[in-house]
Write a structure and sequence with these properties.
It is built from eleven helices and nine strands. The protein is of the alpha/beta class.
Length: about 300
């Protein structure tokens, strides 16, 4: 496997790369169950959480992951700092270099910002979500969750429902799950599908009820009200009626099938509370698994052990 310094996109991951992260995350999950939840692996290393967009959950998950590996963590919130007063991303990169950051976990509202950052810093860059582009560790934790619950990803039918157009989670999942051998179908109103979706490795459907009985995993996306105008669908009620996962719809799914959601959920809109809180829902697992997967990514990128074999 090639030596890579950064995790910017799931499209960059070969099958062996992806499996290495998932297998390493299995080992990290055992640390979480141990009496002492810490490994000395990254002692003396510095991980900077550089968040230009708020996301308490993702930032906290990376922070816990780094601390369990004994790294030092600096939380660099760009809101209210010199960055929001006009300092450029390049200036920020120079600041990070001066701090001696070994890894920078970057979330930014502009698609491609972590890629730019990666060309300016010596350390490893992890994309924690860039614009509507990608969110690779979310896809890795989703795949890890599927594998733990169903025993495999290869050969499964995964259905991703909702606002695919604005969803970096959907993009990262489509590339990764396809690499891992799943058959992915997206279900959404035509207005919420990206241009060129016919060139992606996915099936497309506009009829959720027809797809549910054949799905092993159903991933509901948050309706991103802040990113859309009313032009995308007639009304919230109409959207919920056609694309929301309620108890009746969940009953169409095979008994073993999982319901996933990257969070935060808009309960009653894209998913009913009764479904979100049901035994087939993986929402709580996804949060716990996020720490294991992010530990695996940091461990591999920062040379866990002596080899620099990483994703």
């Amino acid at each position: 496997m090639g030596v890579k310094r950064h995790l910017l996109s799931t499209a960059d991951l070969l099958l062996d790369d992806a499996l290495l992260v998932l297998d390493t995350a299995d080992r990290m999950a055992r640390v979480a169950d141990a009496p002492v939840r810490k490994l000395p692996t990254l002692r003396g290393r510095t991980v900077v959480n550089l968040f230009f967009e708020d996301s308490t959950r993702t930032r906290t998950s990376f922070e816990v992951a780094a601390k369990r590996l004994s790294a030092d963590v600096i939380n660099f919130s760009a809101r209210g700092s010199s960055v929001s007063k006009g300092e450029s991303l390049k200036d920020t990169a120079q600041t990070l270099e001066a701090m001696g950051a070994d890894a920078v976990v970057c979330r930014h509202s502009a698609s491609g910002a972590p890629h730019r950052l990666a060309s300016w810093v010596r350390g490893s860059v992890v994309n924690a979500g860039d614009g509507t582009h990608e969110h690779p560790t979310q896809a890795l934790l989703d795949a890890f969750t599927i594998r733990r619950r169903l025993g495999r990803v290869d050969g499964l039918a995964v259905t991703i429902v909702g606002d695919v157009l604005h969803s970096r989670v959907a993009r990262s999942n489509i590339w990764l799950l396809t690499t891992l051998g799943a058959q992915v179908t997206v279900v959404a109103p035509p207005t919420l599908l990206p241009l060129g979706i016919d060139g992606w490795p996915v099936g497309v459907s506009y009829d959720l009820d027809a797809v549910l009985p054949k799905s092993d995993v159903v991933m509901m996306l948050r309706v991103q009200r802040e990113r859309m105008s009313a032009a995308f669908f007639p009304s919230e009620r109409e959207y919920s009626r056609r694309y929301g996962l309620d108890a009746d719809r969940a009953a169409l799914m095979p008994e073993h099938a999982l319901v996933m959601h990257p969070g935060p959920m808009v309960r009653g809109m894209e998913i009913a509370s009764s479904v979100a809180d049901s035994p087939r829902s993986t929402v709580v697992d996804q949060v716990a698994n996020g720490v294991s997967v992010r530990m695996a990514v940091l461990y591999l990128l920062l040379g866990g052990g002596t080899d620099r074999e990483t994703t």
